[in-house]
Design brief:
single chain, 75% helix
Length: 153
Amino acid sequence: MTSKSFTQKLNPVEQKVHEQFVWCGKHAKEWTEQCKWLLLEVEEMEIWKKLGFECVYHYAAALAGMSRYAAEDALWILRKLEDKPLLREVAKEKGLAAVRPVLTVVTKETEEFWAEKARTMTKNTLETYVREFKKQNRLESCPRTTVESENLS
């Protein structure tokens, strides 16, 4: 069913409510992302405490509808990005979730490489790439056991 045929079933008042709902839905993700970007400052300035909230997570839940997990995740990502300007740039463009997969492997020295990967890959592709990168590095850095060494001779 197309959007036009779907909305033809609505009277003008219902149509207006529907359009408002669609508009809000389109912007909800954007607004939640903006709230996440502000959350670290809210925590550091203890705004939540000054307003009588028990913790920053209650503040985020009450005022932005964020789950505790979403707030914790946003704070973790933002802390990891504090000294990584290139990844911060990508996160501003694509969202915090887009850079999350690389935050366990990135260093100051490798930030440019990972920022480019995060910029050009989808989140799912990037997760797979990081998983393979970790597996490869684990294999390369793992010392051989005596049995393996004997088998190589």
